[in-house]
Amino acid sequence: xxxxxxxxxxxxxxxxxxxxxxxxxxxxxxxxxxxxxxxxxxxxxxxxxxxxxxxxxxxxxxxxxxxxxxxxxxxxxxxxxxxxxxxxxxxxxxxxxxxxxxxxxxxxxxxxxxxxxxxxxxxxxxxxxxxxxxxxxxxxxxxxxxxxxxxxxx
Length: 154
Prior knowledge:
By secondary structure, the protein is of the alpha+beta class. Helix content is 36%, strand content 10%. It has a three-stranded antiparallel β-sheet with strand order 3-5-4. It has a two-stranded antiparallel ribbon with strand order 1-2. The longest helix is centred in the last third of the chain and has 12 residues, at 137-148. Mean pLDDT is 85; it is low at 1-24.
């Protein structure tokens, strides 16, 4: 199924063949399709508009947040996309995202972090972490810690 990024941007028509993913797209595009379908995403321009920032250099604030480990982004073409679930009041990053990124630091790429948020998790009673970050942030952080914990065989 074709990806539609909720918000203002959509995937290029050339990336779809009869409503299906073009097999010549990048090796991670199928996974990206699933991740983008699980929640709403926006580019830096829309993010700055929602947060009330200047559009003069729309990538400046999102880039700063990324560098500080407060958010992550997925790149499609030449554009970074940010998950709506990473933001709270005033469209500012919510702390639980930074905590989860910290747990996964040096263990998972942004793509794998996004896949984790969009995947059912048995430690969260088979719910998506992205759906619990507001109501059960401590449980989401604990599930991330379990994800990267070494297996104890004994």
